[in-house]
Amino acid sequence: MILMANELTYLAGNVIHNVKPLPPFCDVVCRFLDVFSSELLHDQSCKNYPDITAVAFWARKGNINKWKERTNLNELRLGRGVAFHITPSNIPVQFIFSYMFGLLAGNANIVRVTSKEFSQITLICDVLNKVLNMDEFSVIRSMTCIVRYPRESDYTKQFSEKCHVRLIWGGDETIAQIRQCPLPPRAIELVFPDRYSLAILSAEIVAEVGTNELCRLAQNFYNDTYLMDQNACSSPQLIVWQGEKDAIVYAKRKFWDAIKRLVVDQYDFPAIKATSKYLNFCVNAIKYPQTGQLVSSDNYLYRVQLEKLPVNCDELRGQFGLFYEYDSRELAELSLIVNEKYQTLTYYGVDKELLVKMVLHNQWLGIDRIVPMGRALDMDLLWDGYDFIREMSRIVDVR
Amino acid sequence: MLEKHLEYLSQDPYGMAREAKQEYLRKCLQDLIIHHRDNCSEYARVLEALAYDDSSAKELEDLPFLPVQLFKEFELMSVPKSAVVKTMMSSGTSGQKRSKVFLDRPTAMAQSRCLSNIMASFIGKKRLPMIILDTELAKKDPRMFSARGAGIIGFSLFGRDVFFALDDNMEIRWKDLQEYIERHSGERIVLFGYTYIIWQYIVKAMQNKKKNMGLTDGTLFHIGGWKKLQAESVSAQTYNQALKDVCGDIDIHNYYGMAEQLGSVFVECENGHMHCSVFSDVIIRDPKDFRACGIGEEGLVELISVLPSSYPGHVLLTEDWGRIMGEDDCPCGRKGKYFELQGRIKKAEIRGCSDTYGQ
Fold first, then answer.
1. Reported pTM
2. I need a surface site. Which of A209, A273, A324, B168 has the fewest CB within 10 A?
3. Cβ of A233 and B353 within 8 Å?
4. Which domain covers residue A210, as residue numbers?
């Protein structure tokens, strides 16, 4: 590949020359990730970033082995070749997860990171380079190319022409843009469009929980939502309460009071978030007449009750703690709204088997994840309905 | 402005003390709220979603406010479209959505009368020779016809023998300018322009050429953001001094207003305080809960104007930051609240995985 050096910066690795895929969960890759993990954990500067710590924990031997077992590959597989990742600009550590997934599947990886200067990116790449330069990992070095280049440049096209898998993180608009660049005939594409997520809580259970459990529940909900400004595609926008009317009234007060205390205590809330949230609320009020009146005692938490579930519910989005709530006696009515946009269903106090049955029985197009409250943002080898290892590797059928 | 309030426009813009002003504004605004609720369905919908109740609103701070950015999202109007005579667009940088503000004849007229009343209190009712510190192109070129061009047209109504100091290439028409000043020597001259354009194309250019207009009696009004000047670390003091160094002995008044509330502008007095006129008011709100802040407390700036009747722009929450410095007691003698603006609030680094290839 001939590239113009002035536009493109290598943050880690270099141009990929010889493409030699590995089998998934190859020993050298697992060893590499384990060393990478401990280097991250020992790096003094990295310690200040909880998101880097999360990366380090994910890459540990124990976790990778757990995933290897869980993935349980029975057939002969090899990585597809070169995976080209276009990673999002507002989750600083996303690029490294995408890279690790590609590597575990056995691929060489070209990863485009955002032009935004996040310290996490620099710190992670410094550590990555250090590990890549160890002799035993020269194979991994030859499979690594982490780059930064302006969006307008030709590189997206060039990389697309040469790759075997393309991953597009970052929503509908990005996908539409990148798809202008054709892929080789055999290449496959994994895309991560705009999604919509919801939470279901059992009013009876919330009504019964003690103080400690309520604190845990509130923290879990906070982590699923406020932690990412409620902007992650897996952060719930719609909060569905299951139960009898009286229990719901009581549970809501208890739950939201706990959330409010936590938010006031933990959430970084500059003025722009207050004005954006208020604008968002007004815009939605005008566009969706079925939304009810604002429930709020201040700007930290906005709640809006829905009397009916609007068909286009997935357009009804909040940010910075603006939640739409619905009281449901019968969860089956969710069939009215669930479509292929629905990604994560977060639950609390609700039997997950029941939720599984609902997805199956109603033959929904959407819902790719059913996870307990607090796990909405957990990035893993299964995401958005994809099994990264299987998607990014090919089967050699031997009989 | 509603017809029944029209006679109010002849009031002295800075002559009314708190109690009388509050009562008057409350009455006007209650009428306006009802008018807009009856005639603008989007506005009615927001009031409904906020559970707004007329009877519980006792003070101005209890009145519902729209986020000013709502004019970028919807075409908000309280008159039939056929009654609209002018559509104002906010300047907005490229790629951003722009506000659309719909004016019918009565609102446009009220704006112009209000502005002229406010200006008259600074420069008198007589029309004075006027220098526009901008290019005439800003007025003619439709690509520039935004708030900038409209502002020039609106302001030039108060002057006579209007002269544009910059040519089409944004160069100073030095020879013509000298002639103009000579022709009007002994007279008081009014100057008008946009804050940053004045700095970039007048002050810097004249500093470079070491020139001075040598005005002996002039009043300069400028409007526009400080954002670019802040980036160049130019304070209001530096700005004013540099301006005097190249213009001569002039009074300088910065003023503040939005495309969404033309006419009822806020002018800075000789003490550097922005003043509300009787046609407008300012409320500072705490971003944590939108409660009204007291004197001296910093917060989000909410602007009230009695003028808008063709669109619901009478009570708007901006993304500007400021604080009220006092009321009725500015040493300049003007009544009403006076305040200080501290610029735009910071855009947030938004987390999450929504569309992001842009960066």
1. 0.91
2. B168
3. yes
4. 196-372
